[in-house]
Amino acid sequence: MVTELKKSEVESLRGLFDGATCAVFAEYRGVTSGEMDTLRAELRQVNTKLKVVKNTLARIAAQGTQFEKAVPFLDGPVSVAFNFGDDISAPAKKMLDFAKEHKNLKILGAVVEGAALDGKGVQTLSQMPPKPVVRAQLLGLFQAPARNMLGVMEGVARKFLYAVTAIAGKKKENPQG
Hints:
By secondary structure, the chain is α+β, with helices and mostly antiparallel strands. It folds into two domains: 2-128, CATH 3.30.70.1730; 129-177. Helix content is 57%, strand content 16%. It is elongated and about 110 Å long.
């Protein structure tokens, strides 16, 4: 019966690893259950699930997924924040903000698109803008040359129109010249 429970837990974790876009790993030694509940509630707001994992079972579940590089983080009492949304920086922001208030929570690292990040990498990740903002910034960069070219062309046409209008005005004042 015990092995059936472990197999079930491994399958559950594998499902989380397979569906997640990124995961943030933290040591929760000294964090109370009430504080963990508060953190869970904050993470739910950004489409992230916090789960306390058994390291051996998590290592087994991570095999064959993009989270294989998370094995070094699985030491001691570890919780994993699985993100299922587009904003991969949101769980890092929430976890770091919570860790500032609760010194017992230590951010160990993260895995994003198969790349392992240490604690400093997680801090950098938390400062990234959300994906829709990055897309809008890139779109603005791509549109800028066309917009500038259009402005130049409008300026040339405008100057030509002013010149024609000025010549027409002079012709009206002096019909002979």
